[in-house]
Amino acid sequence: QARAGIISTVEVLKVMEAFVNEPNYTVWSDLSCNLGILSTLLSHTDFHEEIQLFVRDIFSPIGERLGWDPKPGEGHLDALLRGLVLGKLGKAGHKATLEEARRRFKDHVEGKHILSADLRSPVYVTVLKHGDSSTLDTMLKLHKQADMQEEKNRIERVLGAISQPELIQKVLTFALSEEVRPQDTVSVIGGVAGGSKQGRKAAWKFVRDNWEELYNRYQGGFLISRLIKV
Question: Domain ERAP1-like C-terminal: where (predicted)?
Fold first, then answer.
């Protein structure tokens, strides 16, 4: 109804507040998706920081309940929910989540305590979103060292979370390098486009500037339409 302009988006936010005690992954996934759309729209306004605060308020109770480590008797959906919630809190700048993500990332990079597969994406996206050039360099090094394609793809999807304009350009250049398989280039550019307002502008300019190469690479295949969509 809000998307159709029938009711105010404020009503949607009020309804979302009622879900703070919700345990179900599918429900949180939907809330996360809708909040992501609102964040994208509000990134062009003065309300961007307010929507981040709203995300932190909505997701922190479930984040505290889940914690960082699996509990006995948990199912597959609990692991998915933990990854979703921690990633959302980390991206939104939740202080405790950011600090713990940085600590675990450091241990992971140093080989002291390797991150479980379901925590890697939320940790990577959190440290990148609030990271600098050394964070990006470390992530690119992890990409180079990864022997499984699944891990390479996981890293490629989150690189666009980096915030500084010159680092965004570095990620876009990386997307077309030989380090990235042609079929995965779109994921890197898409990650940049979805990462921030600056990322969207930079990704769109990059696609236009490199249109000939991208078009020749994908011809009329589904990847070119996916690229335009993102």
Answer: 2-229
